[in-house]
Structure formats: structure tokens, C-alpha cells
Amino acid sequence: MTNLNRRTFLNASILGTLGAMTTAAYANGQDKPNIQGFDQTETDIDESQVWNPISDRKIRVGIAGYGACQFGAQFGFQDHPNVDVVAVTDLIPERRDGLAKACRCDKTYDSLEEMVTDDKIEAVFVATDAPNHVNHVVAAMKAGKHACSAVPAFWGGEPEQADMLYEAVKSSGLKYGLFETSAYHDDVYAARKIYQAGGFGEIVYMEGEYLHYAPVSTASYKNWRVGMPVMWYPTHASGYYTCVTFGSLTEVSAMGKPSTNFYRQPENNAYGNAYGTEVGLFRTSEGGMARLLVSFDTPGWGGEVGRMRGQLASYAEQSKYNGAVEESRKIVDKLNLRKPALPPSVGSGGHGGSHGHLMNNFVEAILKDETPLVDVACAINSTMCGVVAHQSVLKDGELLKIPQYAMWS
């Protein structure tokens, strides 16, 4: 046996053991792993406002997925007064039972494909493995269900999934939302309000960073996380532009740093990927510039962070709004930059206090017959920019055009 084969064999053995240990831990009722971003973050909600229900109708929701991140229960559908979680599913029986318990739901199915045939279900939350997000959203929509999904919108190894997702949403007329957590960070929420009111003018330059140190890959279905190209998971960084302006990134030149991590040696992952840190310089749809950094390879503080500089004002997590131009200050003085109240039974949750707001936005979009905040065009644009950035890394920084998606009228 060669050294290469021995490394591959050991890697498979380690990953198989890790997956078995994780499944056993959930079966014994242990908490989910300690993963950056899942802390119950303090967040700036306007407590002077009172949440007012817009309907007494309960949307019947099915939830799919309770893996290492336990996303199926993390966004609080089970706590919303306008939701009835009527069914859940996970391929692994112990996780399926755990999801049912967490969502206080008695009905379970062996798979999403089986669950979406249930006529009682109106909407499905897809919290399954990233390579199957599009397959599962499409299956739900073919069965006549609204659908929302964890990130990324599609899997970078199959960019044709972007068109599959876009056409499924467009042809069905159903609601689709991506649960991109940066969209309801305090700073992104405030910046979006300022931008929409004209307080920035055009964005001249922005930065978005997703820093998530992962020396050992989190256990995942069929090990999809192990050694993946980090820019295939870009939305926590790109959202600092796309979820503020709802514009897009149009071209990119990107570079990467080969990793010393065992799982990111090309022979030790299914992707042949060597990079744990990638940086891209992008052109925006406004004609400005953007820099995105995604790193799973550098220790220290983690986060989904960003900053933006506009023609009239700037905004950054550290300094917040800085309106150097009087025109901008007059606009911002009239704005409420604090997030609205949630139903009393719903918590803001982790990832910058975003979970509850994303879920509530999707529920209210169905009740009001509106488009969810992170619609299919924003979702694909937020993901595609990273997929093309990784292609640029592999081409030594070649400037590449990024396919563009827009909502139909």
C-alpha cells in the first residue's frame, strides 16, 4: 500500500468513526457540537414595538434535516404562533426522532421525498446536506409546497443546479426563501434601511468576511463538508453586499492559500481541494468594488462581518454609521435602524440574532402573498459569486465573469 492510499484509507476511517460517534451522541440526547455562530447572540431589537399578528391562520410546515448543525429546529418554526409543524424527516432514525422531539411533532417520514407527498403540508424547510438543497427544494415545489432552505442556495460542484432552482421557483409561482443569516445581522439590517432610503448613495466599496476556523471538519452526510472549497459557502460574506443592496457581483479575480490541514490536502478529500482560505476582488452591479474573504483555516475569532463605504456615508460593525455628508445624516435621522419585534414565543437565535427573523419573514411572506427577503435571484447571486471565485483561484486569479440572475416581473 502506498503512502497516498494509506492516507486516504486513514482519512475514510477517521471520518467514518466521527460520523458514527456523532450519530450515537445525538441518539443519547447529547447537545449539538460547539460550532461558531450558534451562540444565542445579543441583538438590537426595538423593544418599544409590539409584534402584531397579521392573521390567525396556521401554516402547516414540514421540516427536513437534523444533522450536525441541527438546523431543522434552530430557526424556531415550532414556536411561531402562525405555524403548525405537522411532519419532520431525517434519513437517520435517531436524528429524525430528535427533530420530532425538538419540534414537538408526532408525525415523521423516512425521507423528504416521502414527506412532500403529504397533502397536509403547505411549506417545507430544507435543512438537509448542501449538495441536496436544490434537489429537495425542487421536489417540494413539484409537490406544490412553498420552500425555504439553509445556505448555500446550490452546491458549487454542480453549478447547473442554479438554473434548476431558478426555473423551479419561477414556474411554480410558489414562495422560496434562502435563510442567509447575514441578512438579519444588526449591521446589515441597519445598512439595508439606510441604503434603501438613499443614505449611502451608491456603494463604492464593501468588504465581507466569513471566518470559521475548522481544523477538523464537522461531521456531515456523506462527508460533504470535508475539504470542500471554502468559496462554495460564500453567502455569509457576500450577503454584506447582496442583502444590503439586492444587487450582485458581476466579475471576480481571486486567489487562495494552500492549506496545511490534513483534510485539505487534495488526496484527502473528495474535491481534490487544497485551499482553506480564498480572497476575491469583485466588481459590483453598481460599478463599485468588493472584497470577499472566506477562511476555514485561520485560528482566532470567527464571524460573519463586513463593512461598506458609499458616496454619502459608511457603515462598519465597529464604528456603525458614519454620515460625513449632511444629506445622508438628514436621511438617517428619520430612520429606525433597530430590528422589528418578533412574536413573544420566538427567539432571535444564533448567527447574529438572525434565525427567528428569517423564519418569521418567510412565514409572513406566505400569509401576505409577498416575496421573501432573500428571494431566489438574491440567493443564487449570493452563492454563484463564490463558485466563480473558486474557479478563478484554480486559474491563478484570472478575471472571470459571473452569471447573473434577476427576478421576473
Which labels suit this protein?
19% strand, alpha/beta, 409 residues, eight-stranded mixed sheet, 11 helices, globular
Notes on the structure:
By secondary structure, the chain is an alpha/beta fold. The protein is built from eleven helices and 14 strands. The protein has helices at 3-27, 71-74, 93-102, 112-115, 133-142, 161-172, 186-196, 235-245, 326-332, 355-368, 376-394, and strands spanning 59-64, 83-89, 108-109, 123-126, 146-149, 176-178, 203-211, 249-258, 275-284, 289-295, 303-310, 314-316, 320-322, 400-401. The strands form two sheets. The chain has an eight-stranded mixed beta sheet, with helices on one face. Helix 2 (71-74) links the parallel strand 1 and strand 2. The longest helix is centred in the first third of the chain and has 25 residues, at 3-27. The radius of gyration is 21 Å and the shape is globular. Residues 1-30 have low confidence and may be disordered.
Tally the beta strands. Answer: 14
Helix and strand pattern: HEHEHEHEHEHEHEHEEEEEEHHHE
Rg: 21 Å
Low-confidence parts: 1-30
Q: Count every helix, treating DSSP H or I runs of 4 or more residues as helices.
A: 11
Helix content: 25-40%
Strand fraction equals 15-25%
- Broad shape: globular
Q: Mean pLDDT, nearest integer? A: 91
Structural class: alpha/beta
Distance between the termini: 60 Å
Largest sheet report: 8 strands, mixed
